[in-house]
Design brief:
The protein has 190 residues and is an alpha/beta fold. The chain contains 3 helices and 8 strands, in the order E-H-E-H-E-E-H-E-E-E-E.
């Protein structure tokens, strides 16, 4: 997700807590169905921030459904982004947490909103600095369209058509206790 502030006019809530819960449970089932042959090599890596929280929730669902424990990591893609100028922008970098080797693993990359595809490209570049996975698949809670790169999610919680003037903000209980929602906002002044 590009470095933006969340200022704008709220247009519509597109997912509430129950819809998010159901979408992540469905994604977990789809991951199991598509990866049953290599379930032992499966790992989840969430894109910070919020993709990591979603990855943990998916892993909890996988454990409840199949009684398997899946390693979960988190990756910060800030320094891999191509849509920020590192010389002109004040950036905050958080920690990448990959306490396992991804070489030869089937990596499910997890993000909250899929938009242009640039965050996913940055995440794949970052992952390659940590090893060579057997495969990388993509799970997104929301796909809002407007791709600028040839990237598609393997698992999508909900497709939400938006205009370029709009943005989708996902709020999760891990950041704001008691709140799970996805809302479309329209940017101010556009």
């Amino acid at each position: 997700m590009p470095i933006t502030s969340f200022t704008g006019r709220e247009k519509a809530q597109v997912m509430d807590a129950e819809e998010i819960r159901r979408a992540l449970l469905r994604i977990a089932h789809e991951i199991l169905e598509q990866n049953h042959k290599h379930i032992e090599e499966l790992v989840l890596v969430g894109v910070k921030s919020r993709g990591d929280f979603i990855a943990h929730r998916i892993a909890e669902n996988l454990e409840r459904i199949e009684e398997i424990e899946v390693d979960v990591g988190a990756i910060d893609v800030t320094l891999y982004r191509d849509d920020i100028n590192l010389h002109e922008t004040q950036i905050q970098v958080s920690n990448t947490e990959l306490p396992f080797d991804i070489t030869g693993k089937w990596v499910i990359l997890v993000d909250e909103v899929l938009y242009t595809g640039r965050t996913v490209r940055a995440a794949m570049d970052a992952l390659m600095d940590f090893g060579r996975p057997a495969a990388i698949q993509l799970a997104a809670l929301i796909d809002r369209g407007h791709r600028e790169l040839p990237i598609a999610a393997d698992y999508v919680g909900k497709n939400v058509p938006t205009s370029r003037r709009e943005f989708v903000r996902v709020r999760l209980a891990e950041e704001a206790p008691g709140v799970d929602s996805a809302t479309i906002y329209e940017r101010e002044g556009e």
